[in-house]
User: Which sequence fits this backbone?
């Protein structure tokens, strides 16, 4: 009898019954469902560091997925939905932020640092060679 009770407790607590389950979403068309999946894969969760809305289980991600679903049902375009999210949460919600003055360092910062590092490396090598030549004379 104890093993049966233990089995039921294990099954009860091993399921995801305590997590907030999302309702199964009903779309008007397959195109809307495809748009929804593309948008939640493209938008980043504001709470999570590197998870999109589709992968995140954070409360805000669930709310934003529902918001995207609602906006698709209101027949807003993908651009309008993305613009709304950016206006509300900033460019952070985009996995591919726009290439503008505000994101210049984000896009080109690593390249600039690489060039600076390469120049510093070349200068150090040259100065070491010059000091080696002077020391050998």
Assistant:
């Amino acid at each position: 009898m104890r093993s049966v009770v233990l089995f039921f407790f294990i099954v009860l607590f091993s399921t995801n019954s305590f997590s907030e389950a999302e309702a199964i979403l009903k779309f008007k068309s397959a195109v809307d469902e495809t748009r929804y999946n593309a948008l939640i894969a493209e938008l980043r969760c504001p709470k999570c560091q590197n998870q999109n809305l589709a992968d995140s289980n954070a409360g805000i991600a669930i709310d934003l997925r529902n918001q995207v679903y609602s906006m698709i049902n209101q027949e807003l375009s993908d651009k309008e939905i993305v613009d709304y999210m950016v206006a509300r949460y900033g460019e952070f919600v985009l996995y591919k932020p726009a290439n503008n003055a505000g994101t210049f360092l984000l896009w080109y910062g690593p390249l600039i640092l690489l060039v600076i590092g390469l120049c510093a490396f070349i200068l150090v090598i040259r100065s070491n060679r010059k000091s080696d030549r002077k020391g050998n004379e």
Summary: The helical segments are 2-14, 30-42, 59-73, 78-89, 104-136. The chain has two domains: 26-98, 99-137. Residues 15-21 have pLDDT under 50 and may be disordered.
